[in-house]
Prior knowledge:
Layout: E1 2-4, H1 18-32, E2 38-40, H2 47-55, E3 60-62, E4 72-74, H3 78-94, E5 98-100, H4 108-121, E6 126-130, E7 133-135, H5 151-163, E8 168-170
Parallel strand pairs: 1-2, 3-4, 5-8, 6-8
Antiparallel strand pairs: 6-7
Helix pairs in contact: 3-5
Amino acid sequence: DAELVSLYIKPEEKRRGIGTNLLKETAKELMNQGKQNMIVWCLSENKNAINFYKKLGGKIVVEKDIECNVETLVVEDTNKWLTDYISNTYSKEINEMNIIGVTGTNGKTTTAYLTYQLLNALGSKTAYIGTIGFYLPNEDFIELPNTTPNILDLYELMLEAKEKGCKNVMM
Length: 171
């Protein structure tokens, strides 16, 4: 799955098909990459956007019923729903890798990064996700905005590691 955090069209450019074309091209590219679903984040107060996504076949996942003419799925907790959805959709792929976590008070980053380096040196292709970023063997690292990525970001990083041939993810 993919995530679209925001789609902004300048007010003076609206109603010209720009948003529709952007979303359709994005969806087409994602389908070419094998993605089957796209999660689009939208404020519940933004009725124009809600109706726009409805017109394109979208469904809304909400914690409380909202007044709009879009099919909604009311859930008790949207974060839990998203976590369960992602886990149910991708757990098989993720579970094909070894996920190695380091816990404790001091030395987690050093221990995890050194273990990442060691496993790669031993020929066991390993990714690193943690405080100092996202690392894949023989590639530039990516800075992460948070020490602990949210569930969607974490799964995206792990799936990227799997796509790049990693057998292990060090965290």
